[in-house]
Amino acid sequence: MLAELGIASGVRAMLISPPDGVLAEAGRLSPRPSFASSIMTAEPADVLAWWPETDALGDAAIAKLRWMLEMANGSAWVLVDPREDVPPATRVEALLGRHSLSVAERRQLGQVTALRVSAIPTGTTDGEPSRAN
Fold it and tell me: Does domain 3-78+88-121 have CATH number 3.40.50.150?
């Protein structure tokens, strides 16, 4: 799964709440990705991959995701696994949008929906620069 997300050897990545199978895959990379048990303990990286659960999708957590994207000028994947306690991908997209995060890409990886998220720059709407009249 990590390779399909562009997380390979040589990429500075942070995995947030990953499932066990992903941990095994990450162990084969060099350098190994950093790990965090929650978004609140994660740090900025070139690529973030977050497997949230419903209780982790609050305003503070999504604001932290946006902050990390801005600090690292990186990219993030939010991975929605219907087998876990998480709302449907469309609801997760709506939550992200409320915090000026846009879904730049959507991939289906088996049962998991991967959403590549980017921050909408301040003073823009949906990634387009605002234009003064």
Answer: yes
